[in-house]
Request: fold
Amino acid sequence: MQITAPSRAQARRHAAFVALLAALAGLMFGLDVGVISGAQQFIQREFAVSDRVLETIVSSMMLGATIGAAGAGWLSGHFGRKRSLLFSAALFVLGSLACAASWSPDSLIAARIVLGLAIGVAAFTAPLYLAEIASEDRRGAMISTYQLMITIGIFVAFLSDLAFSYTQSWRWMLGIIAVPGALFLLGVLGLPESPRWLVLRGRHDDASAVLHRLRGDDALARREVADIEAQLRTPQQGLRLFLQNRNFRRSVALGVLLQVVQQMTGINVVMYYAPRIFADMGYATSASLWFTAIVGLTNVLATFIAIGFVDRIGRKPILYAGFVVMALGLGVVGTLMHMGMGSHAERLLAVTMLLVFVVGFAFSAGPLVWTLCSEIQPLKGRDFGIGVSTVTNWVGTFIVGFTFLTLLNHFGHANTFWLYAAFNAVFILFTWTLVPETKGVSLEHIERNLFDGKPLRNLGT
Ligand code: BGC
Reply:
């Protein structure tokens, strides 16, 4: 069949559309993370549930996401990236509608597990798809765009919660997400399959056709297919390599630790429970939802700092700075909680320090942990290594979400915030002893160092 060549401009538009759609998966992810924070006080009132049950409602989504992320590797390998994204988009719509229609705490928990499955699958498949369709010089930018979309999604959800709070309609808060979900579903229908997956399946002509449309250049498309074929000569060994090779076990362990650290900073205490924290500081519902929206905006804006500086300053200095800022922010919040926050000034200072904490996270551990996790794994174990660390991210989120209110109720606000501040202080030491500096180092060089048995912190030297 003769394919008429698309012009370069057409190809660029097509590639931009594809990237935008895949990044929309990031937006969906963020929307679903953010939406529960503003809804929970109304849910708690209507269903008259304890903090323990509320914690379960909040964190059931993360349980679903853990399962989704664990199964996404198989799903996207077996059925392809596009069908995995379609599956996840359909679950987004279904899960959101089911949340809005839930008639009991149990049915809400079940609906949030479905929603979690959608996020778990999307969170694994979308970055993979983006990396596979992006041209070499755009790859970094595409992955950071995806990160940014997550934070924008969280912010938009906070805003939407704020709007619906005036009518106290938590069902609308949870249900409205079906609309972007449906748009996402329609958009995914128009996406091409990933060229790398097509080559994996032996469909070389289809892969060429997709790349031809994306790049607008036949020679370029053919070269990329050849590159993919060459790359695929290194088969993914995942679990076997893990069992056989001590050095690979070290990089997998580092990926796991990085994600544990990211979650133990306490970021999701704020992302999932901010309105509750502000209410406990003494603010009324409306004020606490306004502050939550500001938290969301701060999270978006500070992510730009990371995007601008990671490749200039390097990973480690940014991580040190982030942990110091986070320890300080939460430490002061804990101290103010301990003092009782009697005055208006003290309450405002507590809000400000919580924002400082969010800034500290968003410019450091937020994006950087994901970057590092994808950089430290050797090529033949990359899918497995990244899969394991992504699942760990969700297990960590689940543990944090499932314990926060219990911690507050058993140990008090001050001790809980001090605990997280102390974690962040310890992570300065973690960065110093275990984290490698990977700025400007090729992935091949990191891999060679890993297999030579160099200490983890020296992988980039
Ligand atoms: C984390 C999420 C968190 C989000 C907040 C991500 O890097 O993995 O758990 O909710 O940042 O922006």
